[in-house]
Amino acid sequence: MATALPKVNQNNMCWRANRCSLKNIVAKKNSGVYFLPQQIRNVTYTNTNSHPGPLTANSSPSTTTPPRPLSTVSIKNLIESIQFASVQPNNASSTINKTEQRRGHSPQHFYQNRILDRYVSQPVHTITLRQLVFFGRNLTEERLIQSGNYVRSELPIRLAHRIHDIQNLPFIVGTNPRIAMVYDLYWSAFEKLRQFPPIKTMEDNDAFCTAVKGLLKEHLVVIPQLAMGINECSGHIPEEQINRFMYKMLRSRLSRRVLAEQQIALTENWHDPGYCEEIMSGGYIGVVSTRCNARDIVEKVAKMTRKLSQNKYGIVPPEVLLDGEQDTTFAYIPEHIEYILYELLKNSMCGVIEKHAPASSISRSTRTDNISLSNSSSLPPIIVTICSGPTDIHIRVSDQGGGIPDEIYSHIWSFSSSHKLSDDKKSENKFLNFEKVPKMAGTVEEQEDAMIPPLLHLGIGLPLSKVYTEYWGGALKILTMDGYGTDAYVKITRLGNREENLL
């Protein structure tokens, strides 16, 4: 008769092993998770509650020992009994089997960390915005190849750190199909990038850029899958740990896209005969604009948010008034500051309309052909104030949209939805809107996609804006008066001498 296995706390366990399959080591029975270390080699067992350090499979701890193999347990029966906690617990076993069929192999690479650990042990080499501008402005073929090799060596290091973070999630979170999907994408990209040969010619660089373009397109699903996956696991992981994990993941994602898109843009610039003239006229250097104009950016984003608000509510939206040093120019990545201002103005627009517009005048129809944005609005305006300091640019967005309730304000930077929902309002989970957004790049342009409902609330707009703002050493603060309105303060670097913030 088989000996019962010791029960472990599934939320506080992390397993890392080489040459083992999840199917052969995990079985869930009733409320506990049981581990079968059959065919395990080089197992590292960590109990975050009982032991400060790792315990190897061959060690003899005084209080806890790894589970013993059960030779009498049928592997076939074991596989059939596997269940993972998820949003569909009854179908979890078939889900993991289908996942493995999609991969074409068992998830052994999840624990094969010899190569991964070598990359994790290497430090990340951060850059500044000024370095991007300087390097691109003085571009030569030799420098472009040098830049390509830097990106080629840096991307797998940054990916390795995030793969390591996913591996260190509580076991039950790591088995979520959405988190597993992100893990597979990261692992595949890590393997492709680390195996790419050194760049020696422009032809090599072109091939590298083509490969990276494919990865960027492939990874557009990461933000929706991460958001929904973490939301589904919110009951198994503390809010603080969720936020720490998500901020790291998204900052690293942003940094990798900046490096990749800059190399691609510089390569395209190099093949453009008019590239030098464009630089002299104050245009783009890669993805960086050397002369971002504050007025132009605010007006562009304001026009878009007013149009989307009009389509959603069917009324003339509030006006956006500019104040302060409107002609301020600075070097920045326009996509970043545009996304930040879009999220802030979107929230302000919705707040003002829903507080001040009569309910009878609000229409959810998109039939707004007879409404013109040139018409004046009777709603309180949104005021954007711009201030240029010696080292930073400050932008304030002020509205009279009713403010943010105290119970929500304390969690506006959180990626977790568990605090926002009562038992009778589970269906109102805003993260479920990601089902309508299968891909997301985090840019303003994609907001005009006709397939996406206007001003769709995804629940991560402010946290993601914070990621964008802090990436180059800036800051985003929200002050609110519940019942009246909200002021949002954006600070971005003017000198571009601050390194990437990846923590």
TrEMBL record:
It is found in: Mitochondrion matrix. Gene3D superfamilies: Alpha-ketoacid/pyruvate dehydrogenase kinase, N-terminal domain, Histidine kinase-like ATPase, C-terminal domain. It holds the Pfam family BCDHK_Adom3. GO terms for cellular component: mitochondrial matrix. InterPro entries: AK/P_DHK_N_sf, BCDHK/PDK_N, BCKD/PDK, HATPase_C_sf. Residues 127-288 form the Branched-chain alpha-ketoacid dehydrogenase kinase/Pyruvate dehydrogenase kinase N-terminal domain. One of its GO terms (molecular function) is pyruvate dehydrogenase (acetyl-transferring) kinase activity. GO terms for biological process: regulation of glucose metabolic process. Residues 54-63 have a biased composition (Low complexity). Residues 45-69 are annotated as: Disordered. Its EC number is 2.7.11.-. Its main location: mitochondrion. Keywords: ATP-binding, Kinase, Mitochondrion, Nucleotide-binding, Transferase. It comes from the Eukaryota. Belongs to the PDK/BCKDK protein kinase family. This is Protein-serine/threonine kinase. It comes from Ambispora gerdemannii.
